[in-house]
């Protein structure tokens, strides 16, 4: 079910007959004459709830279906709202600063702040070493570190151990790939401007560091759908350090992979990673894929 199409009548009517319990299915007390044609699977319930959050038309259809087909559910809902309305009216609206923090919380987690600060500190240190190092022919540490700098932030943004609200977040209908991508964008929004400034100061072209940066980020997301974001980030960083960083520092020259000759390879890796992420988008909904 995409954001541009509406839920079918079977889904709406079936969901109207649901009641909280151990699993989807009508409650005999609320629906004394259940119809198997309206039974919904857990995946259908999950997809419909995610769709209802963004589709007013389907919410209105659901309200009408509840009123017509399950009056007991409608009566229960009205009773709950009658009890909550005075309490909600007594709650003062949140100040603008708290509303801003609440919006930012949908893009970041508390654990991301120190990690992003560390990434910025590493970028600044690499820039200082580049600017104070030897003359022509030197290896740019900014260029060498750029591909893996956002990887740590991506891992922390979707980590079970570092996010205290991870269990609650992954249990919501809208969790999964959209939330993973949103938090990844938040990481890149911090890392890319820092690298842009560092690249300008050291004379690097944007394509030299931006394509490897985005390619490694997409590779982390693609691998994270299989083994978890944290493990994917650790594995990718270790491979980069052993296969690229260490040989480059030992040889004392920039490898072809990080020169203009390597840009087509990075484009291909970026496209491949994005394709894998889209093909396996369902893997990011399961908590097993977000370890």
Automatic annotation (TrEMBL):
Residues 15-36 are annotated as: Disordered. The keyword 4Fe-4S does not apply. The keyword Transmembrane applies. Keywords: Membrane, Transmembrane, Transmembrane helix. Coiled coil: none annotated. The chain crosses the membrane at residues 104-127, 139-159, 180-200, 206-226, 233-251, 263-283. This is Zf-HC2 domain-containing protein.
């Amino acid at each position: 079910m995409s954001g541009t199409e509406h839920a079918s009548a079977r889904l709406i009517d079936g969901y109207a007959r649901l009641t909280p319990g151990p699993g989807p299915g009508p409650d005999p007390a609320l629906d004394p004459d259940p119809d198997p044609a309206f039974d919904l699977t857990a995946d259908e319930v999950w997809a419909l709830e995610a769709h209802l959050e963004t589709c007013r038309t389907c919410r209105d259809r659901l309200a009408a279906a509840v009123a017509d087909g399950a009056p007991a559910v409608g009566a229960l809902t009205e009773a709950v709202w009658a009890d909550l309305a005075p309490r909600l009216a007594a709650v003062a609206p949140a100040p603008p600063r708290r509303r801003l923090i609440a919006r930012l919380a949908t893009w970041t987690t508390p654990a991301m702040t120190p990690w992003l600060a560390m990434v910025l500190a590493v970028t600044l240190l690499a820039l200082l070493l580049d600017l104070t190092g030897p003359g022509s022919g030197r290896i740019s540490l900014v260029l060498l570190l750029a591909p893996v700098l956002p990887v740590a932030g991506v891992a922390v943004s979707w980590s079970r151990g570092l996010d205290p609200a991870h269990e609650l977040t992954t249990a919501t209908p809208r969790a999964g790939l959209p939330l993973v991508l949103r938090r990844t964008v938040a990481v890149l929004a911090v890392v890319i401007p820092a690298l842009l400034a560092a690249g300008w100061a050291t004379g690097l072209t944007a394509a030299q560091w931006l394509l490897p940066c985005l390619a490694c980020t997409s590779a982390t997301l693609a691998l994270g759908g299989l083994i978890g974001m944290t493990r994917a980030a650790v594995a990718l960083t270790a491979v980069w350090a052993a296969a690229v960083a260490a040989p480059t520092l030992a040889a004392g020259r920039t490898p072809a992979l990080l020169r203009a000759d390597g840009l087509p390879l990075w484009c291909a890796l970026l496209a491949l990673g994005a394709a894998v992420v889209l093909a396996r988008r369902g893997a990011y909904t399961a908590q097993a894929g977000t370890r």
